[in-house]
């Protein structure tokens, strides 16, 4: 009996202490970005939430790995302003609800100084309200449909207008003006298809038809029939995820032999390595980066590819988003050094002053000569490539040039330092042909 | 004319997909009453075994597919012994603790669901840890046939043929052979079957093994045409359960009929209005079927027959 009452008292004491500690934690969290972050003076903390299991594991895993590569390199070279980087890394399992939980944990409990999170646009939109409410500096590093004008979000991957903007005009020139669009049936695919219409209009081409395909679909017989019925000059494919990969093998075995332009295939899920030739023959990817991009900083001894596979000898591929995670970590480093602090408003100010990475100093920009951040829109003017797979799945670079972000900067007039907002703009609001 | 051929081929394709997706489940769920949520992962085992046997061991595709089916069948038997009937753990515990530790999962629908869901998580993540996020794929054999401005993969038509062959073989096995009779007797009335000299334990094990082998064969047959990654089984689950439930109590005939009906609906709607509408039409059709034929298609047929006999 006496033993029991003692243990109850102990329990009450312990839980009371826990409540006090919890409240203290809350108040620290609410005062937000002021001095009391969890990391001590000689460290700073970065959150990395990328899918390592579930539907997007294939494309998310290289992102996590590349973030860790950049962090390890920076730490080995003395950290950021002498501060070593700590990481808060978890696997959200391609599940948007887990993303929301982990985002809250990263911000409120781990007090991360900057957050990298998410593969799909659906994920980004699921966590962006949490990010904005907590005024958290956030890097979204996937190629995406574009249009996010958000004072706390740096969407540093290429946008649909940049990716499709290099590949679509080229295919119109080479093969003719008739286009058929197939795209994944969610916000990314729908908006990318709108961009195909806008770009078709700008290049005097026409979209004969479009089909949106649920992410769970893996049989493409009727889709292939409909493409053959429409008889386009080329197909634009914005298919996403593991199930949709089946399309390429199925169209090859059905004898559908047509050039395909894409912003999603090969550079992200390395289908040209996983599928047997000639499934990916004649596919043109508009990308800022893939492992085969023939720049010096990418391919030389000790270059980006070498360093990645030295750290991860068993990794299957170095994909488009991995490069974005990598260089954006260095952009953050540069911004913190420029700001002289990890205080997030100051770091955001530094990023908005326009950060540029180049060949002169570490790291080089694996995709081209320089990578520069546009402070007004929080987007990057990427060096874009058209990469083509041949009958044996060898990759060659067909064309490349710098393409600035245009939609937010020129069409919308997004200027975040002047006019802070948290909006995603869509092409339908600005172009009649996108409707 | 050409559209007719399109539609016919599309129907064969959908029919084959639904029937093959449901084949193993029809036996394990339909006959044995175990809701096997690891059905998709049994398909995964078949697909991975086939692909690895072809790419790593250099086996010819047909042999690799048979290996895929057999390996999954053996895995199914192990699953039955360890998790579903618990015979092996109980054998050990009888000798060490002197009592059973596992109550068999037969006719415990909800419990079998939880146990097999756990198994499916272990298998998916196990495949991811062991083989990574994808494995290299084999290409589709046989090329394509052309008609007008269209062409269709010959292999997809072969699949339709194989699915019909499998249905006939399964039907024959369970209705025309001694084994089939014993298996059905066991599942209908275990005690009586035992009294008649049937080794019911063995019947459960073998029936589960056959169901698993069929699921494995489905994975083997689809290995060349779907993307090889750890969650590949998921894409079969909806069609499999819908087909078995709509099919009703006479599982093999039911699967054939629901494959026919649902395949036709899927083909017509996805051909005319696109993949998305096709999928919606399939699910709406299943809803309507279950609202008006709660016992499934074959249950409805039985009712009609009974009524006719009574009126005579």
From TrEMBL, chain A:
Region (Disordered): 415-435
Domain of life of the native organism: Archaea
Keywords, comma-separated and alphabetical: Signal
Xref: PROSITE patterns: PROKAR_LIPOPROTEIN, TAT
Residues of the Leucine-binding protein domain: 43-391
InterPro entries: Leu-bd (IPR028081), Peripla_BP_I (IPR028082), TAT_signal (IPR006311), TAT_signal_bac_arc (IPR019546), Urea_ABC_transptr_substrate-bd (IPR019968)
Name the record gives this protein: Branched-chain amino acid ABC transporter substrate-binding protein
Taxonomic lineage from the root: Archaea, Methanobacteriati, Methanobacteriota, Stenosarchaea group, Halobacteria
Automatic annotation (TrEMBL), chain B:
Topology relative to the membrane: Multi-pass membrane protein
GO biological process, one term: amino acid transport
GO cellular component: plasma membrane
CDD domains xrefs: TM_PBP1_LivH_like (cd06582)
Keywords linked to the UniProt accession: Amino-acid transport, Cell membrane, Membrane, Transmembrane, Transmembrane helix, Transport
Segments passing through the bilayer: 15-37, 57-78, 155-174, 204-228, 240-269, 276-293
Subcellular location: Cell membrane
Matches recorded under InterPro entries: ABC_transp_permease, ABC_UrtB_arc, BCAA_transport_permease
Pfam families: BPD_transp_2
UniProt-recorded Gene Ontology molecular function terms: transmembrane transporter activity
Family note: Belongs to the binding-protein-dependent transport system permease family. LivHM subfamily.
The name this protein goes by in its record: Branched-chain amino acid ABC transporter permease
């Amino acid at each position: 009996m006496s033993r029991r009452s003692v243990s109850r008292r102990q329990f009450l004491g312990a839980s009371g202490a826990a409540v006090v500690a919890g409240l203290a934690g809350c108040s620290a969290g609410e005062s937000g970005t002021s001095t009391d972050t969890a990391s001590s003076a000689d460290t700073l903390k970065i959150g990395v939430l990328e899918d390592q299991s579930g539907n997007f594991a294939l494309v998310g895993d290289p992102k996590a790995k590349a973030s860790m590569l950049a962090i390890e390199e920076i730490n080995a070279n003395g950290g950021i302003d002498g501060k070593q980087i700590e990481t808060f890394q978890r696997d959200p399992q391609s599940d948007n609800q887990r993303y929301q939980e982990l985002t809250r944990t990263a911000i409120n409990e781990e007090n991360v100084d900057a957050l990298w999170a998410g593969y799909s646009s659906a994920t980004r939109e699921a966590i962006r309200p949490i990010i904005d409410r907590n005024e958290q500096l956030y890097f979204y590093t996937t190629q995406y449909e574009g249009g996010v004008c958000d004072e706390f979000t740096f969407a540093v991957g290429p946008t649909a207008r940049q990716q499709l903007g290099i590949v679509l005009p080229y295919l119109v020139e080479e093969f003719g003006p008739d286009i058929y669009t197939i795209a994944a049936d969610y916000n990314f695919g729908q908006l990318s298809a709108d961009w195909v219409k806008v770009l078709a209009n700008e290049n005097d081409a026409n979209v004969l038809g479009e089909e949106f395909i649920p992410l769970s679909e893996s049989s493409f017989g009727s889709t292939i029939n409909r493409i053959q019925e429409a008889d386009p000059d080329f197909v634009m494919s914005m298919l996403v995820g593991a199930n949709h990969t089946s399309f390429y093998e199925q169209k090859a075995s059905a004898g559908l032999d047509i050039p395909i332009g894409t912003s999603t295939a090969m550079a992200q899920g390395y289908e040209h390595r996983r599928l047997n030739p000639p499934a990916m023959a004649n596919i043109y990817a508009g990308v800022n980066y893939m492992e085969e991009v023939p720049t010096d900083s990418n391919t030389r001894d000790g270059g980006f590819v070498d360093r990645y596979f030295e750290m991860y000898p068993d990794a299957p591929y170095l994909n488009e988003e991995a490069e974005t995670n990598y260089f954006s970590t260095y952009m953050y480093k540069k911004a913190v050094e420029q700001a002289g602090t990890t205080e997030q408003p100051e770091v955001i100010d530094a990023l908005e002053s326009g950060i540029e990475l180049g060949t002169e100093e570490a790291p080089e920009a694996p995709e081209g000569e320089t990578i520069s951040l546009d402070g007004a829109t929080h987007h990057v003017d990427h060096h874009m490539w058209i990469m083509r797979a041949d009958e044996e799945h060898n990759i060659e670079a067909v064309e490349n040039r710098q393409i600035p972000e245009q939609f937010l900067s020129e069409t919308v007039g997004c200027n975040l330092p002047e006019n802070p907002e948290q909006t995603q703009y869509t092409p339908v609001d600005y172009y009649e042909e996108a409707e | 004319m050409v559209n007719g051929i399109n539609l016919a081929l599309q129907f064969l394709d959908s029919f084959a997909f639904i029937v093959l997706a449901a084949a193993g489940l029809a036996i394990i769920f339909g006959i044995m009453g175990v809701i096997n949520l690891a059905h998709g992962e049994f398909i995964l085992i078949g697909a991975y075994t086939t692909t690895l046997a072809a790419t790593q061991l250099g086996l010819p595709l047909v042999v690799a597919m048979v290996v895929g089916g057999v390996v999954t069948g053996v895995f199914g038997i192990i699953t039955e012994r360890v998790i579903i009937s618990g015979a092996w753990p109980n054998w050990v515990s009888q000798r060490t603790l002197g009592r059973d530790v596992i109550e068999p999962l037969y006719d415990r629908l909800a419990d079998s669901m939880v146990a097999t869901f756990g198994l499916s998580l272990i298998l998916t993540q196990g495949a991811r840890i062991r083989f990574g996020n994808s494995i290299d794929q084999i290409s589709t054999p046989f090329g394509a046939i052309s008609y007008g401005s269209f062409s269709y993969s010959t292999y997809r038509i072969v699949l339709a043929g194989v699915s019909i062959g499998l249905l006939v073989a399964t039907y024959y096995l369970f209705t025309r052979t001694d084994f089939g009779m014993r298996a059905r007797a066991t599942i209908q009335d275990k005690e009586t079957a035992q009294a008649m000299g049937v080794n019911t334990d063995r019947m459960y094990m073998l029936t589960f093994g056959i169901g698993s082998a069929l699921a494995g064969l489905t994975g083997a047959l689809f290995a060349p045409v779907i993307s090889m990654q750890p969650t590949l089984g998921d894409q079969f689950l909806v069609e499999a359960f819908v087909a078995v439930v709509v099919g009703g109590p006479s599982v093999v005939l039911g699967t054939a009929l629901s494959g026919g009906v649902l395949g036709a609906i899927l083909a017509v709607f996805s051909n005319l209005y696109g993949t998305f509408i096709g999928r919606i039409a399939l699910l709406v059709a299943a809803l309507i079927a279950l609202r008006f034929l709660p016992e499934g298609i074959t249950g409805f047929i039985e009712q009609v027959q009974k009524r006719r006999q009574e009126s005579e």
